[in-house]
Structures are given as structure tokens and as C-alpha cells.
Design brief:
Length: 236
């Protein structure tokens, strides 16, 4: 089995790359699909890095500097010690550390952080990248959950996305929120809903920018390309 310690980690952390000055000049934040965020750094939610070569069976290794908590969480759910975990195992690992993740969110994370040689499973490199990414999303969640309700409402979601560089129109915010309306008709996002929404917005924005190379806010897609871009994010 290959050693994936050199495989580049997927970039689904919440921080957004800066846009060219010409893109945002003279535009209010609600126009276009992105607005450059102010510089910000996020503290890592784990202890100091621990140089590691530990991994599962078959030579699958964690990247150097992976915190021991991450390695232990992976090994605890990798029951067959194969060095790879499936979606149910990922759900167990995340739910024990962060929040009870829904299987829908877990499937999206499996898609976004899939192993290049074994797309139906996740290896140590992808797991470590996902864990650190979730720590950053958690910091954003806590920052914008201003009433400490444990949920993000539509105003808080809009502000959180703008802070990350994504000026999502109010109509789209309402569509996102409406997917998580409770039995009382109140729409709000808990942590895993917030991660799901944030990664969908970020992922689709990055896909859109591949076609909108001049940052005009417009792009041309064929029908096939449009479906191939959208469906993996909405049907994980």
C-alpha cells in the first residue's frame, strides 16, 4: 500500500484567498461572489505539533507534525487497522471529538477529502487535513454564534461568510438556512450544518472562479459542466 505522506492536503479550510484589488474596487460586499476579507490568523486548536511517522498497516502515514490526539482518534475507529476508514468510522471519530455529525455532512467530507487511490475511504493524510480544517471552521462558528445558542442564524451566517470573503446574497442565505428548518419553522445551523454550508459555498466558489479568471462575477458553463460542478456538492 502506498505511503501518502507527501500528498497535498485538500484546501477546504475557511480562510479565503485574497482577490485582486480590481475585483472589489467600488463594489459593495453583496455584489459578485467574493469580497477580500481582512487579514486574519486562526490559532490551532490542538497542542504543539508532534513529529510523527505513525500510521496504520501497510505504510499509510500521518504527516509530520500531526497532533497525537488526531492519530489516536483515527486509530480508535480504524478497527481493522487497514490504515483507512469508511464513512461510518469517520462519523464516529468526528462525533466523539467535535459534535454529532450527520451522515449527510460526513459523506460530503468524505467526497471533499477523499483518498486519491481509494476514493471510498479516507487515509491518515486526509484525516489530519480534515481535522485541522474543522478546527478552523469551529473557531469561525464560535466567533459568530454571538448569542451562544449553539446555532448560527441567517444574520450570523451572512456575517461569517462575508468575513471569509464570500458575499452571498440574502436570497441564497435563506435557501441555505431553509434546508435546516426545525419542526417549529425556525431555521438555524448547528456546527456540522455550518461546516456543510461553508464548504459547499467555498467549494462551488472555487469551481466558479476556475471559469471566471478575471473575477467579473460571471462565467459560461455547458450544461454538462454545470451538472458535474453542482451535483457532487448537493448529492454526496
Amino acid at each position: 500500500m502506498a505511503n501518502y505522506s507527501g500528498y497535498p492536503a485538500p484546501n477546504y479550510a475557511p480562510s479565503a484567498p485574497p482577490m485582486p484589488d480590481s475585483y472589489s474596487a467600488g463594489r459593495p460586499p453583496t455584489e459578485g461572489y467574493a469580497h477580500p476579507p481582512p487579514p486574519r490568523s486562526y490559532s490551532h486548536p490542538y497542542p504543539s505539533p508532534w513529529a510523527s511517522g505513525a500510521g496504520g498497516a501497510g505504510g499509510s502515514y500521518f504527516p509530520p507534525g500531526t497532533p497525537p490526539e488526531v492519530i489516536r482518534s483515527f486509530q480508535a475507529v480504524d478497527r481493522d487497522q487497514s490504515g483507512f476508514i469508511e464513512e461510518s468510522e469517520l462519523q464516529a471519530a468526528l462525533s466523539s471529538a467535535y459534535h454529532k455529525f450527520s451522515i449527510r455532512t460526513v459523506r460530503l467530507l468524505m467526497f471533499l477529502f477523499k483518498n486519491p487511490s481509494n476514493p471510498s475511504k479516507m487515509g491518515p493524510v486526509e484525516f489530519a487535513a480534515l481535522w485541522g480544517c474543522l478546527g478552523q471552521w469551529q473557531a469561525i462558528f464560535y466567533r459568530f454564534d454571538r448569542d451562544r445558542s449553539g446555532k448560527i442564524d441567517s444574520v450570523e451566517l451572512k456575517d461569517a461568510l462575508i468575513s471569509l470573503g464570500y458575499a452571498v446574497p440574502p436570497s441564497v442565505i435563506q435557501v441555505l438556512i431553509s434546508n435546516y428548518t426545525d419542526v417549529y419553522g425556525r431555521g438555524a445551523l448547528n456546527f456540522d450544518n455550518f461546516v456543510e454550508c461553508g464548504m459547499i459555498v467555498k467549494g462551488l466558489t472555487e469551481k466558479f472562479k476556475e471559469r471566471d479568471t478575471r473575477y467579473t462575477g460571471s462565467a459560461t458553463f455547458s450544461y454538462d459542466d454545470f451538472l458535474l460542478m453542482i451535483i457532487p456538492f448537493i448529492v454526496p
